[in-house]
Amino acid sequence: xxxxxxxxxxxxxxxxxxxxxxxxxxxxxxxxxxxxxxxxxxxxxxxxxxxxxxxxxxxxxxxxxxxxxxxxxxxxxxxxxxxxxxxxxxxxxxxxxxxxxxxxxxxxxxxxxxxxxxxxxxxxxxxxxxxxxxxxxxxxxxxxxxxxxxxxxxxxxxxxxxxxxxxxxxxxxxxxxxxxxxxxxxxxxxxxxxxxxxxxxxxxxxxxxxxxxxxxxxxxxxxxxxxxxxxxxxxxxxxxxxxxxxxxxxxxxxxxxxxxxxxxxxxxxxxxxxxxxxxxxxxxxxxxxxxxxxxxxxxxxxxxxxxxxxxxxxxxxxxxxxxxxxxxxxxxxxxxxxxxxxxxxxxxxxxxxxxxxxxxxxxxxxxxxxxxxxxxxxxxxxxxxxxxxxxxxxxxxxxxxxxxxxxxxxxxxxxxxxxxxxxxxxxxxxxxxxxxxxxxxxxxxxxxxxxxxxxxxxxxxxxxxxxxxxxxxxxxxxxxxxxxxxxxxxxxxxxxxxxxxxxxxxxxxxxxxxxxxxxxxxxxxxxxxxxxxxxxxxxxxxxxxxxxxxxxxxxxxxxxxxxxxxxxxxxxxx
Length: 574
Fold this sequence. Notes:
The chain contains 24 helices and 19 strands. The strands form 4 sheets. A 6-stranded parallel beta sheet has the order 3-2-4-5-7-6, with helices on both faces. It has a 6-stranded parallel beta sheet with strand order 15-14-16-17-19-18, sandwiched between helices.
């Protein structure tokens, strides 16, 4: 039953429902992504009555991915709300994803009563959720008393935002929601979090050390990570790149911090600059698997020196020695570097910048020839060449991208021109972020969204197209349909079942969208795809385009097939 808040005020009482709502609103949190159910259904209803926006999803994991990307876009915690036990577990994947990617997020889950859980007496959806959540997030809290709601959410907000951002779990036993207390005392117990993400100024000695290292560099390289995009220090980062004249390499979600067509962008010469550089400055990027841990053939035989900017001191030396660690928030660190550089900064040797430019020109021309094809059915280059053209026409579009080949080819083919417009699978490479991220991108920015999905990746969250239609969001989903995982041509010899990587032939994902009232297209050529996407973006209507891709197009695991273990026995038998 929904309780009118005015009844509580008239009786000088306030309950847990309304204290939670007011605690969130006091801290400028007005949007919640959720799946309703026991015991949080009425909380969602009351949030709507009190003016909050509560969007209901078909699966908690997708609501969590929406909350996570909301945190990345807004620099304040995105909130996901779930039911207990199974619903909590569904949301937990997204919470761990947010923590891994350093996105501020709060997962609020209803839970069973403590006295029953602790004695394992078999309550409805009984689980010690706090214990399960703790290893997978920055912090986890359980609120048992109404008077502690203010402090509980204040700690959650500060935990999600301070230092390296990440996920925080808040456990809400059902009894808490119905607890009441004196209205004035309840309001006074709420906390507005002051400066939840304070600046961390770098050590002047660390800045000087980094500058001296960069002055001596013969072949320097800047790598921009999604942390640089999250920092929203766009102008200072652009100034640093252009003042130094150093070639820069954007990681996928940092694309657009400077336009990918910028003269210093080394993205088309990625292999060369990683291999041949002698000094590398990492700005909001980590030397993890996405950068081959800073080791091996990718990085060549040059004895490189690394400068790293990160707010987390323990990130330094995680895989390679960091010769000049700069600990602090990215905005403050970049400004400190600019101040220390002074006005007389020498540009990198022309031999280095000329080598990079020549490699760029060669690779750009080679790519241009491949994406100009008009093959039917399409290959990845022809289809993504169309999306590249669309983004050039409409750089304000939010691009969401996931898949294996669909993701890996898109990273190198599609140029971005504005910051925080490209959203993808992030550090874990997790599939299923597509529809949740698309919904949050539309809600949080108001911009049109173009989701480029592999057919396998789409399957993880495809039912959320009903959510897209229900809220009438300006999202165009393009499913690259080649009938399988990686490819649709694998066969099993003398085995009853079809290959584990093959889907139903001729599947029509566009008809799914039509079933919910959206617009569907089935296309098989680049020209048809171009026209369909343009129409969808102009209409602002929920749209799904089934883009038929040559089933033989693509490679095993995209560009990371080397991570698949190889069977020596199978090789010998074959």
